[in-house]
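Colleagues,

For the teaching module next term, I've prepared a clean inverse folding example: a structure given as tokens, and then the sequence designed for it. I'd like students to try predicting residues themselves before seeing the answer, so please don't circulate the second half yet.
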């Protein structure tokens, strides 16, 4: 399971011309699910994201988490994060969780995230999403849990 986190000043997902999720200051999370992933791993990852300190505190250091920074989370499924890219010139998506399983797990993780944090927005699983963002910094981190 992988998550690419971007600290943003604003972000939104548009599907078929409609905004499906939108936040102001916060974290844009691209979430990739692998074949071996499960809900327990997802809980650990969501908990880590919520506690991860990469917002500036009063001293200008990355000391605040998203809650302390009064931010939001935009959670977007992205199976391409699971691609193997070490060999050849085309990504291998073999490690990604099959779509039906991934959709069910993604929905469970969204529900869990929303139960733990008030401001969680989402894209639409497997949709052709247009993601708009203003990266703050830029600050981007890749998180994984095993």
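(Answer key — instructors only)
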């Amino acid at each position: 399971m992988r998550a690419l986190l971007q600290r943003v000043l604003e972000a939104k997902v548009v599907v078929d011309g409609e905004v499906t999720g939108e936040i102001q200051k916060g974290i844009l999370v691209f979430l990739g699910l692998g074949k071996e992933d499960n809900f327990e791993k997802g809980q650990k990852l969501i908990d880590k994201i919520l506690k991860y300190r990469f917002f500036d505190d009063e001293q200008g250091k990355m000391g605040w988490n998203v809650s302390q920074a009064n931010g939001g989370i935009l959670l977007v499924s992205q199976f391409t994060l699971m691609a193997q890219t070490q060999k050849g010139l085309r990504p291998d998506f073999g490690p990604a969780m099959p779509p039906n399983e991934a959709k069910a797990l993604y929905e469970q993780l969204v529900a869990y995230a929303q139960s733990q944090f008030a401001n969680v927005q989402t894209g639409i699983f497997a949709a052709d999403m247009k993601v708009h963002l203003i990266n703050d910094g830029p600050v981007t981190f890749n998180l994984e849990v095993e």
